[in-house]
């Protein structure tokens, strides 16, 4: 679909929200869904339905600005991230997307419902105020999705705009352990993340070193768990860079190369976990850290 895939979508949403909060600029989220897609699939077949989705991503990119993010958020659902834009401009883009479908050769037979909501920082807020970027991003997605559902209930083929909101502030005194997992094996990353989330940790996942660098600046984690063999480099690069930024950073390494254990420990990593991973053992070790830190 030439859209940001579902796995990378939370990363781009968090990045846009973090930049908006820091720059005191609005970020608008648009949730889009193809109306009656299931019926279209049953009537015209799976191949025809897939052709619609393949054409929809490029169409959205054509209808938006170069600075906007077009993301796949579900089966036939997409999400647009529009930064540094007014409410009127965001509404204009959404209406243009909805009304111009009829002019497209492949997409002319479909219609879309859209939910639109803005996160608008308070320009008078103390610049030292602390915000919860993850909760703010989740709130933007949730509110836009609620407006999308309202558009469906009210008859489809329309844009529903919800009330804008301020970024979510952190709660004083409430602490948790923030963990960044740098791992390109999706199943490994998700299994590890889930085992830690159910124990109360806040977990972000990065599939490349570049994503890990961006997430590190956004979330400021207390602990990083990184693989060594990554698509765009070696995990030791992260150990050196992140520990230079935060000498107190807790660093764990996961790898199938046991012979590199001494190397990574010499760089400052506290723990080396050999693949295949014992998730329960890692979970127990992280829980001990949480009890000491939190």
Q: Quick one: how many beta strands? A: 12
Based on CA atoms alone, the radius of gyration comes out at: 21 Å
Largest sheet: 5 strands, mixed
Structural class assignment: alpha/beta
3D shape: globular
Mean pLDDT value: 91
What percent of the residues sit in helical stretches (DSSP H or I)?
40-55%
Order of helices and strands: HEHHEEHEHEEHEHEEEHEHEH
Main sheet: strand order: 2-3-1-4-5
What's the total helix number? 10
Uncertain runs are none
Distance between the termini: 43 Å
Strand content: 15-25%
In short:
By secondary structure, the chain is an alpha/beta fold. 44% of the residues lie in helices and 20% in strands.
Polypeptide structure, described:
By secondary structure, the chain is α/β, with parallel strands linked by helices. 44% of the residues lie in helices and 20% in strands. Strands 2-3-1-4-5 form a 5-stranded mixed sheet, with helices on both faces. It has a 5-stranded parallel sheet with strand order 7-6-8-11-12, with helices on both faces. Strand 9 and strand 10 form a beta hairpin. Helix 1 packs across helix 5, helix 1 packs across helix 7 and helix 6 crosses helix 10. The radius of gyration is 21 Å and the shape is globular. The chain starts with 8 loop residues before the first helix and ends with a helix.
Give descriptors for this structure:
5-stranded mixed beta sheet; 294 residues; 10 helices; alpha/beta
Secondary-structure blueprint of this entry?
Elements: H1 9-23, E1 27-34, H2 37-44, H3 46-63, E2 69-72, E3 77-83, H4 87-99, E4 112-119, H5 133-153, E5 159-161, E6 178-182, H6 186-197, E7 202-206, H7 209-219, E8 223-227, E9 229-230, E10 233-234, H8 236-245, E11 250-255, H9 261-266, E12 271-274, H10 279-293
Parallel strand pairs: 4-5, 6-7, 6-8, 8-11, 11-12
Antiparallel strand pairs: 1-3, 1-4, 2-3, 9-10
Helix pairs in contact: 1-5, 1-7, 2-3, 6-10
